[in-house]
Each structure stands twice: as C-alpha cells, then as structure tokens.
Write a structure and sequence with these properties.
- By secondary structure, the chain is α/β, with parallel strands linked by helices.
- It folds into 2 domains: 119 residues, no CATH class; 129 residues, 3-Layer(aba) Sandwich (Rossmann fold), CATH 3.40.50.
- It contains 10 helices and 11 strands.
- The strands form 3 sheets. It has a 5-stranded parallel beta sheet with strand order 8-7-9-10-11, sandwiched between helices. Strands 3-4-5-6 form a 4-stranded parallel beta sheet. Strands 1-2 form a two-stranded parallel sheet.
- Strand 9, helix 7 and strand 10 form a beta-alpha-beta unit.
- The radius of gyration is 20 Å and the shape is globular.
C-alpha cells in the first residue's frame, strides 16, 4: 500500500461515517414530520445508495400514502420492496417480501420465516425454497408508469441508461444529439422523465429496463462490462418472472446506434403488463395499510 493510499484510507472511512450520519439525520427528521402530520409510516431495510432504482422505494410507498422510514436492521424491516436486497435478509426475518430479489445465485435462504407475497422471479423464489405457492412474480418498478404518469414529448431516438458501475465508460463516448445518456444516480422521477423522452432504451441497469417496460418503450439489455455483482442473475430472474424472452447486446466500440435500436422491442403485451400491475398494486396497497397501522 502506497503512502497516498494509507493517507486516504481513514479519510474515506470518515466520509462514509459522515454520509451515514447525514442520511440518518434526514431519516429521523422525516419520521418526526410524518408523525407530526399523522401520516402512515413503515420501516424498510433496502440498499440506501444514490441510485434511482433503490431510491424508488420512497416514491413507491408515497404513492400509496405511506412514508418510508429506513432501518439499518433487516429484523426491524416490515417489508422488502424494490431492489436486489434479499441477500442481506437472513432466515429469521419475519416480515414481508413484496418484490425484492437476490443479486446473485450464491444465496440460500431456504427454510426461512418470510411472508413472501411478491418476489422478483422464479430464481429468487427457488433460493427461498418457494415452489408454486401462489406468489406473484414481479418487480414493483413496473408501477413506474402509474407513479410517474405525465406524458412527455419524444426528443431522442435512443436512451442509454448505464448501471452506475458503467457510467464512466459511457460518459467518455461521443454520443450524437439523437442519443440521450441517462445518469442512474438521479432522482427516480427525473430518470423516469428522461426515459419517457426516448423512442428506445438500452440499459445495463435492471431498473432502467423495468421502468422502460412500464412506459411501453422498446428495450434491450446492453451488457457493457463484467463489473456487475451476480452477472446476469437478476436480469434472468426478472424476465422469467414476467414470462418475457431475455436477450442482451454486448457493447463494443464498433456497436452502431442503429444496431442498438434494431435490437430493441416490447417484450410483453399491454394487457399482460396491466394485469401484473393490478396484482402488484393491490397487494402492496393492502399490506402497507395493515403494516402502517402497527406504527400508530
């Protein structure tokens, strides 16, 4: 380890602690505000990172009239909603699973005490020991079109939405005016707005693909790098759960925009998606209402 690395190491730890303190302070303020106004609240453990797919949890619960309050402990979490977060939940968790999944195939949570109502797909279900138990396969991100319903004029032929680990590589490229590079470390409503302004979406972010599905925009998974934890696991999990064909295009410097656009397509019918949305919304609404009553 170089002298520079030794110097930076404690500074990084201090930075992490300061960020956590700031987030915890805001979280406590949100709880006080919600209690003062008599709002419903639920406690949820999720990946509290600056990424639109994870931050979507706040807008999701707010859509159903409930304030999400983050908890560091999975044991205190009343539900696991959006994200590849189930690996951080152990078998003794007794709350609900409402759409979350595993990020990698290595996790084994069979023999658990979980109340699974919605799970991302059959791969995650198998990791929980579930079979055909009447569980709904879906990600709550498919409700994006209901949560962000405003129609926007199309501005771009193609939207490129990289995973946060792929952003630096994509930012270096000379995109034309017909292509919109969409940054994932943004407010989910802003990301949704930019997705809706595109005729087609290619994405290495799973929730980029899910949001585009919800907005009925033709998509293809753009495999930019091998940096993503779990590889293709979460993608195949979601697609199998939605009975959709999984495909990807591997990125290279020679990849043409027209080739990316040609690979994009809608992967389920409007009626199928509407049915899934109705199921997911009904379950989440019912359980949020019941669980929030426990916090009055």
């Amino acid at each position: 380890m170089s002298s520079t690395q030794r110097f930076l190491r404690p500074l990084k730890k201090i930075h992490v602690l300061l960020v956590r303190w700031g987030l915890d302070t805001r979280n406590y303020y949100q709880l006080l505000q919600a209690k003062r106004k008599g709002k419903n609240v639920v406690y949820v453990h999720f990946a509290r990172v600056n990424n639109f797919g994870d931050q979507f949890n706040y807008d999701l619960t707010r859509f159903f009239g409930t304030q999400l309050i983050y908890t560091h402990s999975y044991k205190k979490s009343q539900m696991a909603l959006c994200g590849s977060i189930l690996g951080s939940y152990l078998r003794d968790y007794t709350g609900y699973v409402l759409g979350a999944g595993f990020i990698a195939a290595r996790y084994n949570r069979r023999g658990n005490d979980w109340k699974v109502k919605i799970i991302r797909g059959p791969l995650s279900a198998a990791q929980c020991g579930l079979k055909d138990d009447g569980v709904v396969y879906a990600d709550p991100g498919i409700l994006a079109s209901q949560i962000y319903p405003k129609s926007l004029k199309k501005k771009y032929k193609l939207g490129v939405l990289p995973h946060s680990k792929d952003v630096a590589q994509m930012e270096k490229l000379p995109w034309t005016e017909q292509v919109k590079l969409i940054h994932p470390r943004r407010n989910p409503s802003e990301v949704a707005a930019e997705i809706k302004q595109c005729d087609h979406i290619v994405s290495s972010s799973l929730h980029g693909l899910i949001f585009a599905d919800a907005f009925r925009i033709p998509i293809i998974h753009l495999k930019i790098s091998n940096q993503l934890t779990g590889g293709l696991h979460k993608f195949k999990d979601y697609y199998q759960g939605m009975n959709m064909e999984y495909e990807n295009v591997k990125w290279s410097q020679d990849t043409a925009v027209d080739d990316l656009i040609s690979a994009c397509k809608l992967r389920c019918t409007d009626n199928y998606l509407a049915g899934k949305q109705k199921e997911v919304a009904a379950i989440i609404k019912e359980i949020l209402a019941a669980e929030s009553l426990k916090n009055k």
